[in-house]
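Reminder to self: tokens first, then the designed residues, so the page reads top to bottom the way the pipeline ran.
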């Protein structure tokens, strides 16, 4: 795929929250869409609500986008978890950093959605350092946030974003 290697996990779960890291560039979106297609993920993805306005809103929804108003996220976790539970197959991709800018850590929405829907977290990457993208692991959450995040961080320890200086630390804030 354009010089990139796609990677997958064995026995990919049919329903999961896919945490994609790092998210440091606008190029992550088209690369992620290509990887999703190459892997046959048919993934839905979460994006800020401003991406879903005219003139691109219809296209974004057609591509699998689910808008979230970052200023008023009340009920989003519950609603999306219900949606995941209602489907036989549903992969929801989220960039847990929440932005392409450096932050002190990850937003917890991906974790809370996975726990509420009782699905594993697929650990995904767009690793510019090795030009590989896809799925690294499937992590069944224990509810012990520190231990779960340590497992996720271990999977991503060598992954590098397009702009590595903007990759946020792998910890919940």
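Designed residues (173 positions):
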């Amino acid at each position: 795929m354009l010089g990139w290697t796609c990677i997958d996990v064995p026995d990919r779960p049919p329903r999961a929250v896919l945490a994609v890291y790092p998210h440091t560039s606008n190029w992550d979106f088209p690369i992620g869409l290509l990887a999703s297609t190459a892997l046959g993920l048919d993934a839905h993805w979460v994006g800020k609500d401003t991406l879903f306005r005219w003139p691109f809103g219809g296209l974004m929804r057609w591509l699998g986008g689910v808008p979230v108003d970052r200023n008023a996220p009340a009920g989003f976790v519950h609603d999306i978890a219900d949606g995941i539970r209602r489907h036989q197959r549903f992969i929801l991709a989220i960039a847990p950093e929440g932005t392409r800018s450096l932050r002190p850590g990850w937003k917890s929405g991906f974790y809370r959605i996975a726990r509420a829907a009782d699905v594993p977290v697929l650990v995904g990457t767009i690793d510019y350092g090795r030009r590989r993208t896809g799925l690294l692991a499937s992590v069944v959450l224990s509810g012990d946030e520190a231990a779960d995040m340590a497992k996720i961080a271990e999977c991503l320890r060598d992954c590098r974003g397009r702009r590595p200086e903007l990759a946020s630390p792998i910890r919940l804030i």
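The chain is about 30% helix and 25% strand.
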